[in-house]
Amino acid sequence: MSPLTILRIEKLKTFGNVAGSDDHVTRNRETPNADPTKENVRLIGGEDERALEEIVEEKISTLKHRPRHDAVLCTEMFLSASPEYFRPGDPSLSGQWSDSLMQQWAIASRDWLTENYGSKCVRAELHLDESTPHIHAYIVPVNEKTGRVSHDAMFGGRGGQGRIKLSKLQDSYAAALAPLGIERGVKGSKATHTKVKEYYQAVNSEPLTAVITNNQLAPTPFESASSYVTRIQSDDQFQAINHQLADRKFMEQRLERAEQRARDSEKERQQLEKRVRSLEAQTQQLRDLPLEDVAWELGLHNSQGKWKGHGHIINIDGPKFYDFAPEQQKGGCGAIDLVMHVNNCNLRQAVVWLHERFGELGAIGAAIAKSYQVAAEIIQLEPRDKFTLPVEDKSKWTAVHNYLTQKRGIPENFVEVLHKRRLVYADDQQNAVFVMRNLSEKPLPQGAFLRGTRGENNTFKGYEFGTKRREGWFYFHLGGQLTDPAERLVLCKSPIDTISFAMLEYLVKGDVPLKRTLFLAIDRPNTLPVEQLQHIFNVQVAFDSSELGNADARAIKQLLPQAKKNKCFARDWNQELVNLSQKLQQHNSQQRHQNQEMEL
Predict the structure, then answer these.
(1) Residue 506: closest CA among 482, 483, 490
(2) What's the rounded Cα separation, in Å, for the pair 443 and 164?
(3) Which residues contact 561 (CB under 8 A, 6 or more apart)?
(4) What is the C-alpha to C-alpha distance for residues 451 and 460, in angstroms, rounded to an integer?
(5) Closest CA to 247 of 458, 92, 416, 100
(6) Where does the record place a coiled coil (predicted)?
(7) Which residues lie across from 462 on neighbouring strands?
(8) Is residue 74 within 8 Å of residue 139, measured between CB atoms?
(9) What is the SS3 assignment for 142-197?
(10) Could you tell me which residue, 205 or 537, shows the higher pLDDT?
(11) Cα–chain-centroid distance for residue 543?
């Protein structure tokens, strides 16, 4: 039987409905049938971390007309395929599937949503923590012509016209998945889907007993054991038992994990509550002093909303104040500024005065508030230094070139390609300069990684002064067309390892990758540009096999759940490249020697 498409829609008529659906999909509330060890993936809307309710409300607020009280504010769309597609070998293996098939379906579904709904599809979440992969997509049914939200105009309402629109929607999704071998269900079928709650009730109810007690499964007189086993295994009711037992066992394991997670969560919640109470107490103690209290201590009196005395007429507005007295005409912000202004003293004297009146915590809180104010002004006004690459020294390039090709085993033609692209060059200290760029359409240098090459045992490596390690990375693309988006990502620890891994693939396969591949060097997981890379499903982590390399690979897996680790059998990928290059040289040398002998 060919796998079939699955598409369902649900109307969300209130923001409470939207928030409730969001809590379920983002796993903010307990979901008994979800595996907590598996991570879900946001296919659309990953750059916006706000609550779904807030996103939908903002989308609707731009419309000309407010929604009617019974209007559908958001449409939730459920997309999937029957289990035969995801696990063709055995559809009954709940919670298992082919990653490659899943990724092809997810990409095709995401592209279909984008093509049909564009910015109206504000979020799409790929769930991988249940029995079969599926997508929850949220579409705000905006009608630009009327300036209203209209679910019926987009998806159809009740009656014949609604059924026609829904049927066309099913046709459209099926056409998008047809290249994957997934077909549309029978049009006009009366079959209905079982709700999740009803399904789990069915799995844990009586059918098992009813099937087991069925006389058709009993052995017949004089039937051999092998014949009986063959007959039972081919029986549809026996297959039903297998499916139900697999689902029951799977759910029992999930329930056990969920209960343990609940116990751990409760313990963590209690610890967090204790920590929050402690932080709240500290925050209360360390916030700035109320200016009204400071003004009173300074000997001013409140008259008609102004604090007067000692030649001052001060208006207080929250943390700010302004002196309207003819001789003053100036203002400030915070307790320290107010004391300095009224007492005509410096900062140190103002802190001492506050300590005498409000104690140590009061003076410290005022000082912290002052430091925040000064820091904010500096951040806003101080000019930023633009990163400048090290000056190139062309006379040193030959030595750097020889180091990369002879000592590091990198093919000469690829070193020249990188050099022509201005991704590597030599500075006046004979360092190999690997340029680190941002990931924009027109990349700009944000830093440089330096590798010493002068002398026999030069171990120098480091970053050029001013490098922004969270904003720039050494990377290059191979394969596909220049305008193609990257379909594959390879992460390595250093520029030389990144180049070495790419060249290992080239030397082994004898060609550049068919798919557009982004090779990127990243030395710490917390500098990974997740938002710009999370859409790439094929991610390989090519770190070394050291304890640190394995730990960083696990950290990358947390950030990009689709990532898989490549095993390095040498000290690092460059050493593996050197070893392979030496073997190839020996093979070529032996081949030349054999050819010479044959000529003789």
Answers:
(1) 490
(2) 48
(3) 38, 39, 40, 41, 128
(4) 6
(5) 92
(6) 241-289, 570-597
(7) 450
(8) yes
(9) EECCCCEECHHHHHCCCCHHHHHHHHHHHHHHHHHHHHHCCECCCCCCCCCCCCHH
(10) 537
(11) 20
- CA separation for the pair 515, 486 (Å, rounded): 8
Structure tokens that stand for 315 in this block: 């208006």
3-class SS at 424? strand
CATH ID of 291-381, from 3.90.25, 3.40.220, 3.90.580, 3.40.630: 3.90.580
Alpha carbons 226 and 595: distance in angstroms, whole number: 62
Q: What is the dihedral of CA 505, 508, 513, 517, to 10 degrees?
A: -10
Specify which residues 467 forms β-bridges with: none
Q: Which stretches within 204-346 are classed as H helix?
A: 207-212, 225-234, 236-286, 291-297, 335-343
**Cβ atoms of 125 and 22 closer than 8 Å:** no
Length of the chain equals: 600
Higher pLDDT, 219 or 208: 219
Question: Can you give the pTM of this predicted structure?
Answer: 0.49
> Alpha-carbon Rg of the chain, whole angstroms?
34
Q: Provide the token pair at 66.
A: 């407010």
The DSSP output letter for 404 is I
Residue 425 has pLDDT above 90, yes or no: yes
Give the whole-angstrom CA distance, residue 48 versus residue 15.
18
Residue 2 has pLDDT above 70, yes or no: yes
Q: Please, which residues bridge with residue 95 across strands?
A: none
Residue with token string 């004898």: 510
CATH 1.10.1740.10 correct for 394-583: no
Q: Which CATH architecture has domain 5-185?
A: 2-Layer Sandwich (3.30)
CA dist 36 and 30 (Å) reads 10
User: Residue 123: which of 34, 35, 51, 17 has the closest Cα?
Assistant: 51
Strand 74-81 and strand 306-309: pairing? unpaired
The domains of the chain are located at 5-185, 291-381, 394-583
For the chain, the distance separating the N- and C-terminal CA atoms, rounded to the nearest angstrom, is: 65
**For range 114-135, the mean pLDDT:** 92
Q: How far apart are CA 233 and CA 70, in angstroms?
A: 53
95's CB contacts (< 8 A; 6+ apart) are: 35, 130, 131, 250
Q: Are 424 and 512 in contact (CB under 8 A)?
A: no
Q: What stretch of H or E contains 313?
A: strand 312-317
519: helix, coil or strand? strand
Same fold, 291-381 and 394-583: no
